[in-house]
Amino acid sequence: MLDISFELNGRKVSPNNISDALEAAMLTSVKESITQSVGSIRCTEHGERPKIKAKGRNIDSLSLEVTGCCDAFIEQVKKKIA
Ligand SMILES: [Zn+2]
Description:
Number of domains: 1
Number of strands: 4
Order of helices and strands: EEHEEH
Number of helices: 2
Largest sheet: 4 strands, mixed
Bound molecules: zinc ion
Strand order of the largest sheet: 2-1-3-4
Structural class: alpha+beta
Radius of gyration: 13 Å
Helix content: 25-40%
Strand content: 15-25%
């Protein structure tokens, strides 16, 4: 399973623990679209999966942060989810 986390206004949230149903649905759809793009991707050199954090001041201004085993792989993931 791909590691995706969310941070809104400095607070960690997830589709399961956010109280607003609309926001939960939006987080779920963001998560699904990321999973579709890079859900099965692995670094060809290290066999690692990426970690992705979607953060922003609010749910309409999320930006994606990618971390991974090496820069080349991070770039590859970023291109896919851009
Ligand atoms: Zn790598």
